[in-house]
Amino acid sequence: MRYRRPHGISEEYVAGERGVEQVFVLSEPLELDGDLEIVGRLDNRGETDGRPLVAVPLSSAEGIVFLAQDGRVALRYGRALVYDRAGRQVTAVLRLEGKLLSIVVLQAWLAEAVYPVTVDPPIEGGNFALGWGSGREPRPDVAYNSTDQ
Q1: d(CA 124, CA 100)
Q2: CA-to-CA distance for 144 and 149, rounded, in angstroms?
Q3: Residue 27 confidence (pLDDT) above 80
Q4: Neighbouring C-alpha atoms within 13 Å toward the C-beta of 69
Q5: Closest-CA residue to 85 (of 1, 4, 29)
Q6: Do 20 and 149 touch, CB atoms closer than 8 A?
Q7: Least confident of 10-14, 28-32, 58-62, 89-93
Q8: Do residues 104 and 93 lie in contact, with contact meaning Cβ atoms separated by under 8 Å?
Q9: 53-63 burial string, b = 16+ CB within 10 Å, else e?
Q10: pLDDT averaged over the chain?
């Protein structure tokens, strides 16, 4: 599933055995006054009981895990690898502030990039839905259910 976003950016979701690859592709340099920030809003309700998952930021290299009330890992938002056409790569900085998850790519790295540039964080485990808007998404852009694939 691929979505065209403004400024030559595409967003794609590729289902795999362990979850979904969320892929952002920047086809050309952006005019930025600082670092590139890709921001998404999270609804962290549990997969079966509707109780909130507990977000535990590990590190940019390890990602963020979301724990169910019983302490098990319900979902993992993994390391966001950024790479360019020349094969250069870097790990983006992940930030979680409330319900906002940001993927930050440093402007200095982008200034030397050979386009296109790809930002590729994996999302693994559990049941989840991705969409734009607020509240429950009755028709999200992407949904994943590890039980009923």
Answers
A1: 18
A2: 8
A3: yes
A4: 8
A5: 29
A6: no
A7: 58-62
A8: yes
A9: bebeeeebeeb
A10: 81
What is the model's pTM? 0.77
Report the pLDDT value the prediction gives residue 137, as an integer from 0 to 100: 46
pLDDT at 23: 94
Residues present in the chain in total: 149
Q: What is the DSSP letter of 109?
A: H
CA distance 132 to 96: 18
CA pair distance 44, 46, nearest whole angstrom: 6
Angstrom distances, CA of residue 19 to CA of 87, 124, 135, 144, 148: 25, 4, 22, 7, 12
* 14, amino acid identity: V
d(Cα 130, Cα 38) in Å, to the nearest integer? Answer: 14
How many other C-beta atoms can be found within 10 angstroms of the C-beta atom of residue 85? Answer: 11
Q: Which tokens belong to 106?
A: 């440093």
Q: Give the separation between CA 115 and CA 25, rounded to whole angstroms.
A: 9
Query: Residue 64 corresponds to which tokens in the numbers above?
Result: 């963020």
Q: Output the six-digit token pair for 113.
A: 């990039």
pLDDT per residue as tens digits for the range 44-76: 665 556 778 888 888 888 899 888 888 888 888
Q: Which pair of tokens denotes residue 21?
A: 């690859």
